[in-house]
C-alpha cells in the first residue's frame, strides 16, 4: 500500500486544480489567491515518501494512482527525491543524512524541472519549485521541528551565497513570522519587495493575516 493525499482543490475562479501551500498559495493559472492553505501538505508529502522508502526501499512506489491533485504533487516528490539521490550519487536512504544547502536545493530543483516532462502542467513550474525545495528541507526529520533551526539555516544560506534566490527571503520571512518575530519578517519583506513584488506581497499577506 501507499499513502495518498486527501488534498483536492480547485481555483474558485478558473477551476484549475492545484495545491495551495504556505510557500505558494496563488492559482498557477489566474493568480487568484487561494482562501485555503494546506499547511501540512509538505509534511504529509514527506511522510508518504518515507513510507515508500521504508516499505519498498525506494521513494518511488511500484505503482501509484492519481486519486487527488495532491497525489500528482506527491508523485513529483517521489521522482524528485529519487532524482536528487542519483544526482548526489548516493543511495536513497542516505539522502536522509545529507545536509543540502538552499543553493544546491535550488539548483537540483531547476535541473529536475528542466529534465522532467511536466507536460500539461507547465503552469505549475513555480509552484512545484517552491514545493520541491521545501520538501528537501523537511525531509530529514519528517517535519520542521524547530523553527529557530530553520531560520538559522535559511539565514546562513542567505549570508553565504550573496545572491540567493528570492524564495529564500520569502521562506525566511515566513519562518520569522511563524517564530513570532514580526519585525524581522518585515525586514525580509523589504528586501524581497525589490526582487519580486508578487512574492513580497504574498509574504506581507501572511504576516498581516
Ligand atoms: Zn485560477
Précis, in short:
With 209 residues, this protein is mostly helical. The chain contains eight helices and no strands.
Keyphrases for this structure?
209 residues; mainly alpha; 2 domains; globular
What does it look like?
The protein is mainly alpha-helical and 209 residues long. The chain has two domains: 1-145; 147-208, no CATH class. The chain has eight helices and no strands. It has helices at 41-56, 69-87, 102-115, 125-139, 147-161, 166-178, 182-195, 197-208. The radius of gyration is 17 Å and the shape is globular. The model is unreliable at 142-147 (pLDDT under 50). The site of zinc ion (ZN) has 8 residues, from loops.
Can you count the beta strands?
A: 0
> What's the story with the biggest beta sheet?
none
Strand content: under 5%
How many structural domains can be distinguished in the coordinates? 2
- Global shape: globular
Structural class: mainly alpha
Mean pLDDT: 80
Distance from N terminus to C terminus (CA atoms, Å) equals: 39 Å
Helix content: 55-70%
Radius of gyration, CA atoms, in whole angstroms? 17 Å
Task: Spell out the blueprint of helices and strands.
Elements: H1 41-56, H2 69-87, H3 102-115, H4 125-139, H5 147-161, H6 166-178, H7 182-195, H8 197-208
Helix pairs in contact: 1-2, 1-4, 2-4, 3-4, 5-6, 6-7, 6-8, 7-8
Bound molecules: zinc ion.
Amino acid at each position: 500500500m501507499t499513502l495518498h493525499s486527501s488534498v483536492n482543490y480547485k481555483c474558485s475562479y478558473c477551476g484549475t486544480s492545484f495545491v495551495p501551500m504556505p510557500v505558494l498559495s496563488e492559482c498557477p493559472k489566474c493568480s487568484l489567491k487561494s482562501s485555503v492553505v494546506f499547511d501540512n501538505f509538505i509534511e504529509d508529502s514527506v511522510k508518504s515518501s518515507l513510507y515508500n522508502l521504508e516499505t519498498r526501499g525506494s521513494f518511488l512506489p511500484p505503482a501509484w494512482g492519481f486519486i487527488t491533485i495532491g497525489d500528482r504533487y506527491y508523485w513529483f516528490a517521489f521522482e524528485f527525491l529519487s532524482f536528487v539521490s542519483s544526482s548526489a550519487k548516493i543511495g536513497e536512504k542516505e539522502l536522509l543524512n545529507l545536509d543540502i544547502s538552499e543553493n544546491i536545493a535550488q539548483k537540483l530543483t531547476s535541473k529536475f524541472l528542466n529534465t522532467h516532462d511536466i507536460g500539461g502542467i507547465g503552469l505549475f513550474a513555480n509552484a512545484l519549485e517552491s514545493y520541491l525545495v521545501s520538501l528537501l528541507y523537511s525531509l530529514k526529520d519528517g517535519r520542521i521541528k524547530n523553527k529557530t533551526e530553520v531560520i538559522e539555516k535559511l539565514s546562513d544560506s542567505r549570508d553565504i551565497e550573496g545572491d540567493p534566490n528570492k524564495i529564500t527571503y520569502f521562506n525566511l520571512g515566513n519562518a520569522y513570522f511563524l517564530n513570532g518575530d514580526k519585525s524581522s519578517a518585515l525586514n525580509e519583506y523589504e528586501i524581497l519587495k525589490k526582487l519580486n513584488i508578487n512574492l513580497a506581497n504574498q509574504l506581507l499577506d501572511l504576516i498581516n493575516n
